[in-house]
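Exam revision sheet. Question 4 asks you to relate a sequence to its structure. Input first:
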Amino acid sequence: MGETTDVGGFYHQWSKLGFSSVVGSLVRWGNPLPPYKDYPDAPRVQLPPPKPLNRLSLEEAIERRRSIRDYAQESMSLEELSLLLHLADGITAHKYGIGFRAAPSAGALYPIEIYPVVNRVEGLAPGIYHYNVRDHALEILREGDFRGKLVQYCLGQEMPGMANVVLILTAIFQRTRWKYRERTYRYVMLEAGHIGENIYLAATAMGMGACAIGAFLDEPINHLLDVDGVQEAVVYLLTVGKI
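Answer key, structure tokens:
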């Protein structure tokens, strides 16, 4: 067998910062993109204002956080989904004309988008939605039962078929690339991880379970979301469900 190229190691070396590269980074690559995506022609569901449930303290949520793969058949309420999305990466403050969010982002550029795939949520038809963070609303992209496809695309892992909702995180790389150039992929992946941990802790505090999925077939999921896999691509999945 031939040697496998260490793409990760090569990228890490190539994207290291030095004094010369910091000076060079003052030259931008293109123009900034808006930090929000929306689907203006899609039907939408306005989410209720997020209300704290006060079930667990932050310390308790951190200590109890685990990857939970088995879920009950009970439905999630729309209020619970609203709070979950808000705590994942919702807008928590406005300053300097920027809507600062629950998860940190390099340069407050916010390259990550969240697509909830709903299986069992009260008041919502099963299907694929987009979280419009600016308006705290869901945009309906495709109705239908996608549990079987997601199990298949996640290499037979059963969590997407059992969870109340599957949160698919994508990255719009140019939002970060225009400013941070070769560091873009580092920062985007870090941000996806920040949001993922927020989802874990929010679910735990709300008495639910979550599980991250890193093993999935990229292109079928990109196709499911109707994103091109280059300018915008799936980077992370998390299942959340009642336990």
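Marking note for examiners. Residues 184-205 form the longest helix (22 residues).
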